[in-house]
Amino acid sequence: MTFKTRFPVIVAASALTLALLVVVLLTPEEPQPHKDDGHLPVVSVLEVERSAVTPGLTVQASTQARWPIELKATSRARVD
Prior knowledge:
By secondary structure, the chain is an alpha+beta fold. It has one helix at residues 3-26, and strands at 56-64, 70-78. This is Efflux transporter periplasmic adaptor subunit.
């Protein structure tokens, strides 16, 4: 390779390296979340026991919409 063919390759490689360096250095870092181990959430632990009674769940709810409308839902479930 002569100087005339080697010089553009060196300039291009240097420009790409410089561009990559600028992008890496100017990219802001994401803030790291602060871990606060002093305040742990309260946890409840329940033990499940078998029984002859069939468990049932009845839920009724109402919600407020963005426009004047009333929405009511009733749901029933059976766990076997």
